[in-house]
Predict the 3D structure of the following.
Amino acid sequence: MNMILPKGASVILFQNVPYAGSLCCLFLGVIAGCVLAEKSYEKFGGNRNKFLAAFISIPVVSAVLLALRFGDSFSAVKGMILTFLFLYASYSDIRTRKCGDLLHVYILITALIGVQLNEIPSMLIAGAFVFVIMISTSVLFQGRIGGADIKFSAACAFLLGIPKSLCGVIVGLILAIAVNAVISAVKRRNNKEHGFPMLPYLAAGFLAAYFI
């Protein structure tokens, strides 16, 4: 059995049951969210109740939106996997300013769901293109965009392609600038000195681009 499946293919198990695939994703989203919240709490510490609220509500909302956008297809499954990867990476970056190297490998593997072999060269070009863009941006901003952000963006570009990934980068950067400008004003703190995690904003931008 090939691991790379036709684009937009339906999950055969759910073909004769209306919305069964979407309901399954929703149910698994709640279960996986609870497990991921506990693992994150054990590794990073913090407020367990806030963990549960974020790690359950975000996947549930994502599952509903994915079902409305893609129906019972492998695109919806891929979107759910990305939601969990992005959520874990974002929290890791918030708590530790670090992100595990395997995250980028997981995104690359997820990218292969629902694609055909002849699409892979253009995906590689997209990843390389965004990698160069992010490297240039990091140099322009004097290294404020870290290596994890660059690898994360390149992996997402491999999955999304050039137009969507550029949209994700732009949305992520705009969110980062806007949100942190507000935080700086409220807390009267200079984020240029303290810095801030970029992955949560990039993750939000790329996840939004996935729905385009």
User: Anything to note?
Assistant: The longest helix spans residues 162-187. Residues 12-210 form one domain. The mean pLDDT is 79.
